[in-house]
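Illustration: 3-oxoacyl-[acyl-carrier protein] reductase.
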Amino acid sequence: MQRLEGKRAIVTGAANGIGRAIALRLASEGARVAIADVNEEDAQEVAGEIDGETLVHKTDVTRDGDVEALVGRAVSEWGGLDVMVNNAGVGVAGTAVTTTEEEYERVMDVCVRGTFLGMKHAIPAIKDAGGGSVINMSSVAALVGLVDRAVYSAAKGAIYSMTRASAIDHVGEGVRVNCIAPGTVDTPWVARITSGYDDPEEARANMRARQPHGRLVTPEEIAAMAAYLASDESASVIGACMVVDGGVTAR
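Result:
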């Protein structure tokens, strides 16, 4: 039996990058997966890669009604919800001086509000299903200082803190809340960030060098951690920040 057999999961920001890898991994472990993203076309492509039961739901995680409808649809079609992966996020390169207010608002809205709304609507559904797992996406930027990532670091730090508080709030309801803190992951978002530098190849090399193991983390490595946190094997992992960073935080 696959370790996620029978589980019903939602993954936000699942059309590409880390979210796509998580959706594919959870499905490969036997879960039914709701693929949620603002990019419905790419989300449909991800669903097409899965040999199992899926649903695709166009979702703007900054809109309460969108997230409520997403969770409601999963519960309606599948009879409940066991796993919520709040993965949707955006980032911006910049310091507290160079980042614009608009960039600040966008990053905080998608990352922090999106995670908050995901928990707000998913936790009651998971409780009603008898318990399960909420997985939030933080970052090593929440744990160490990174150059040119002031607002992104603030957003991911907020997710880390909200994860720990929520874990204590809901552990008695059978809902485990944890987060993952990736290092620099080889995703389309990283490609967009590096393309904004004068020398994109140098910027990418600097990102690789950030990890002591000398390479970018893969989306599949983050997905493996998500699968563990979604499974009953992690029943005593509560309020944890699971670091997958190639050694960044070991320094």
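Reading the tokens back as a structure: The CA atoms of residues 208 and 216 lie 5 Å apart.
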